Each structure stands twice: as C-alpha cells, then as structure tokens.
Amino acid sequence: MPGQHVSRVRALYKRVLQLHRVLPPDLKSLGDQYVKDEFRRHKTVGSDEAQRFLQEWEVYATALSQQANENRQNSTGKACFGTFLPEEKLNDFRDEQIGQLQELMQEATKPNRQFSISESTKPKF
C-alpha cells in the first residue's frame, strides 16, 4: 500500500502543477509555491490526515480543471478562477489554516503584482 500512496501523491502533485499552467502568471507563481509548500508540509502526517489532504487537493484539481474548460469555452475572453468559501467550512479550519488562508489572500490581493505582462517584447531605448 505505501507504494500506491506515494504514486497517488506524486500524480496529484504533478496534475495540480500542470493545471496551474492555465492560470495568469502571477496566480500560477503564487499557486505553484503554495502547492509545493503544502505538499512538503504534509509529507510526514498520519494516514487519516493524509487521506483528508489528498481528498481536498483532488477536489481542488477537479474544480480547477472544470474552470479551465469553462474559461476556454467562454467567449468574453475574461478568465475566472476560484470558488466561494462558505463560513461553515471556514469554521472547520484550524488556527494555522486560517493564518495560511489570510496570508494567501493578502498575497493574492496585493495592489502591486510581482509580475507584469507587456504587449511588446521589443526592448525600449
């Protein structure tokens, strides 16, 4: 069983990072770093917590895949990612998770983005 568990974790990790390729560059960078940190942080957790961790990331991967497909079919050209987090689900979070969520929100809503995309790739003199 441990071999299957490791391959399931690795496959999910790769799938999430592949799905992040559809995100805008600043969200991709933020998401990739968060995924790497979370998977690293959960490397040594117990079996029950590992199962919950994998289930939540599988739900995330499925939702992101669906949103990516919807965005491809959307004729407005404006991509939309994310989901509403109901208060009752928030009540189930540990203090550490609330702190991480708050840090993630602050990073995602910073007024000055870490990356900027310009129309022209020609150097300006």
- SSE ordering: HHHHH
SS-derived structural category: mainly alpha
Biggest pleated sheet: none
Question: Regions with pLDDT < 50 over 5+ consecutive residues?
Answer: 114-125
Total discrete domains: 2
Percent in strands: under 5%
Q: Give the end-to-end Cα distance, rounded to a whole number of Å.
A: 61 Å
Please provide the count of β strands.
0
Mean pLDDT across all amino acids: 82
How do you describe this structure in short?
InterPro entries: SDHAF3/Sdh7. The protein has 125 residues and is mostly helical.
Structure description:
With 125 residues, the chain is mostly helical. The chain folds into two domains: 2-83, no CATH class; 84-114, no CATH class. The protein is built from five helices and no strands. Helix 1 runs parallel beside helix 3. The radius of gyration is 17 Å and the shape is globular. 4% of the residues are buried. The model is unreliable at 114-125 (pLDDT under 50).
Give descriptors for this structure.
single chain; 125 residues; mainly alpha; 2 domains; 64% helix; globular; disordered C terminus
Write the layout of secondary structure elements.
Elements (H helix, E strand, L loop, with lengths): L1 H18 L5 H17 L5 H27 L13 H4 L4 H14 L17
Helix pairs in contact: 1-3
